[in-house]
């Protein structure tokens, strides 16, 4: 685990569902996605101003105690590791889950069956109620849910004055009184808050330094704290960048401590901001960058490979914001199941139970963000009756982009546990048909449970390797491929991603995604009267799982083109990245980031599939085009699958070589020159 992670209160590796069970304060920042990239980039301010904003940011991004103190169940941890979900596992085994909810929420073991749940929760009147919110609905539109008694939510959202504790219990508990049973929780909360405040101040310093590192060498601007950097005029202390040998020794002795790491990060960023002036003679810019990446890895607990991969996605200052955002839980959100209820009615029911919530944003008319709850959100009668799905806000996006219509024939190629399938069923008003497929049979159990709980009547669950489509079934009006991925967008939910992904994993995933996307394209009917669309999505932010896969599909299937996703926000996909040029239409795809949109990292691309052109003798691509033929068993020989899909051997060879070179370097071996015969 990284130094930063070790020292931080509220480790991000939470099981969100379990966190929900604890009925405490939930995600406190509102998803910032209303049509704008709202992530505040630190602005250059007077130092007073900066101090205030740092405290404010910290308070707003405070991870919840409930989230931080729960350990994920082994089962859940294993699942997230295997498949890198972006969704809360919802309704896996209702009876078991409900039981654990009660264990978690009440510290009492619930031994009854589902039918006993009501009793266990007491009559409605017995349900613990929080401060009741009065909901004001406009006469016409349920959109306009206005919460009039927002006291507790506001409290959780407002930032306290600099240095002040967020509530009275905290300030009490910050005193030196003896710890008693009565004040233990408050004291513990105060300690958490203090640690967070300190961490946020550290971050603010780093961010300021990083911001400067993004400035040009010639830029005279320097707004860093005087105590954190040497003065520019006169002699500067030249910071000594460790040599490779010194770094090796440091690693062997267990790595530097947190203070050294922080200081070195700051110093390296300071040098990078005025390289010519501040660099040690004879040292290259790349050496400083390498040190920054290595220290970020240690500070936040990433392996070097992933730290570098993620760092390179952003300018330096933004990279720090991204890594920091991965340390904070995302807001808890639910999706109203419009097959069973309306959002305003659901909101009113939950508010009456003591849930503090409000609509997520204008971009969705079914999402609600839960700020605080005095009841377990995953076990309310409304939940059990299928009135809502616990679902990350980001996972609404691919379905909104796909926009399935009533009476269509739709394929959800990798669908378990069904967050998106059930959303599609609702949009289609239970008409038409959705084939909800998932290669993992075990996972189709939770999918089926959710389909039943939410009352979806137009869903057929099946379990094929997605690469067997369209042989098993084809001719769909719309296809969703929410692909298996590395999960680099959901690190705040599953921190194991920080250390368990290697370049080989990324290569294999990218390969699988490329196979799946071609099969998904071939499953769409170009003759569809109402559709003819494919949406490809992942909960990862890496380029090889996103733009590279989409670009590959464009090359391999000339009959498809990218179209606007219809999503009102999100960053444009890369059209070039580190020397790789993608099709210019890649700018129509959308990227979502935790530090920008306060939702899980996500990627969405929408294709329109047209009829295939008649084979053109001069066109290798169309001549060799052949719809993939599926094998009868899912243990299909990998090589044959690769061959039938016409993989780009040249591109793969390059990946393999890169991977081999990195492996050799990691082992301390010198890779042969690039063009040498191996
Ligand atoms: C990101 S999750 C899907 C989440 C789902 N769309 C939802 O919204 O609830 C990816 C899924 O892909 C499935 N999967 C992995 N490899 C597959 C393959 N070759 N064919 C079909 N599904 C696959 C995994 O079992 C996993 O359930």
From TrEMBL:
Subcellular location: Nucleus, Nucleolus
Residues forming the catalytic site: 539 (nucleophile)
Principal location: nucleus
Feature: compositional bias, Basic and acidic residues: 45-62, 186-196, 237-252
Pfam families linked: Methyltr_RsmB-F
Keywords assigned by UniProt, alphabetized: Methyltransferase, Nucleus, Ribosome biogenesis, RNA-binding, S-adenosyl-L-methionine, Transferase
GO function terms (MF aspect): RNA binding; rRNA (cytosine-C5-)-methyltransferase activity
GO cellular component assignments: nucleolus
Biased composition (Acidic residues): 80-92, 115-125, 136-145, 213-236
Residues engaged in binding S-adenosyl-L-methionine: 414-420, 438, 465, 482
Residues in SAM-dependent MTase RsmB/NOP-type domain copies: 322-610
Family: Belongs to the class I-like SAM-binding methyltransferase superfamily. RsmB/NOP family.
Protein name as it appears in the record: Nucleolar protein 2
Organism: Coprinopsis marcescibilis (Agaric fungus)
